[in-house]
User: Fold this.
Amino acid sequence: MGRWALSPIIGDGTFRIVAGQEATTGPYRAKAGDHGGHTALIPGNADGTPAFGWCLVRFDDSADLVAAAADGDIRLLPDWTLDHVITAGEAASISSALDHFGITGYPSPTGRTVRQVLRWIADRLDVTWSVG
Assistant:
């Protein structure tokens, strides 16, 4: 089963990745890609640069989630179903992930479903989409 995460965007927008400088060269992309199969939502500005320094990622079943969890730059969101209602104790991990990327103004995750939290994050990215 896939897993949601927040990831920094790396690269400089060029086509060439320079050995030893992989995080700062090459196309704009989610750092989460270092850990395998994923889909990333990376909204862009009119000039083609990323609109934000972070993106919402959905890892697929082929991703190395152990390595992703150990990556200090990536924040895996808890592995709950979309309709799971988040308790006060569980909300801290979501708030911590949002805080790590400087995402502010979020409502308390407590009492909301995972689906509602993901929709709120997507709204920050100005993405029109449907979660399940």
Observations:
- The chain has one domain: 3-124.
- The first strand starts at residue 3 and ends at 10.
